[in-house]
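Hey,

Quick one before I head out. I ran the complex with fe (ii) ion overnight. Inputs first:
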Amino acid sequence: MRLLFLGDVVGRAGRLAVLETLPKLRERYAADFVIVNGENAAGGFGISEAILNELLDAGADVVTTGNHVWDQREALVFIERYDRLLRPLNFPAGTPGKGAGLFKAANGADVLVVNAMGRVFMGDLDDPFRAVDEALTACPLKTGADAIFIDFHAEATSEKEALGHFVDGRATAVVGTHTHVPTADDQILTGGTAYLSDAGMCGDFDSVLGMDKDEPISRFLSKIPSRRFAPSKGDATVCGVAIDVDDRTGLARAIGPIRLGGRLSQAEPAFWRQDVREEDDA
Ligand SMILES: [Fe+2]
Ligand SMILES: [Fe+2]
């Protein structure tokens, strides 16, 4: 089976690009299951119920989040009505919503999605390593789930790599989010888990992390906030990753970056194109 993941959707530019691209990607590559990080989808800060529904209607099976999950306060309430919206697993006990769930993919497979958040440079949370470990113990690969995808929303690449190796062989994929910048370290770890430090954002890269450049530059220069951060409005690059899953083991056979549209160099995983050719030949 094939998993598709798209990184943090930032503002209207990111949203429009994802809404336009995702249905085509889903169909063209017969993705069985799609996860999208929506923590910056509403004006760069959080997610609204209407935007969540747009992403689900466009073909996201699950929407993950991160530190910005509650920026739109309504999310504290509507998250309880949406099984397919996750917030970080290691938030304090009693936090609304949940951080992991088992979902049915298009091919009938059961996919466990875990959304965890790092602590390095990010503030105090429960230990993400132990929280992820508990989620994997409760629902192990093959006996509990046919595939396991972990969105690790974290700042430090060291913490991300460590978590990848910590669950190597027990999860299908660990993909990082939050930095909004795609990394080029996609690989299959020695135990068979696909890994990428950061998927990058779905947003306008003529920006500082998806926001209009002027205010961030001014704050670095003067340390005086002069206006709110606003999402950059130019053409967005849709950034993500595709994972080919070995249906026998639930581990990864291949991983490859996706970057479509906007300013970044374009990328699509070779194994997706190859499969399309094989289908065309048949
Ligand atoms: Fe983000
Ligand atoms: Fe974040």
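The domain at 2-272 is CATH 3.60.21.10 (Purple Acid Phosphatase; chain A, domain 2).

Talk tomorrow,
K.
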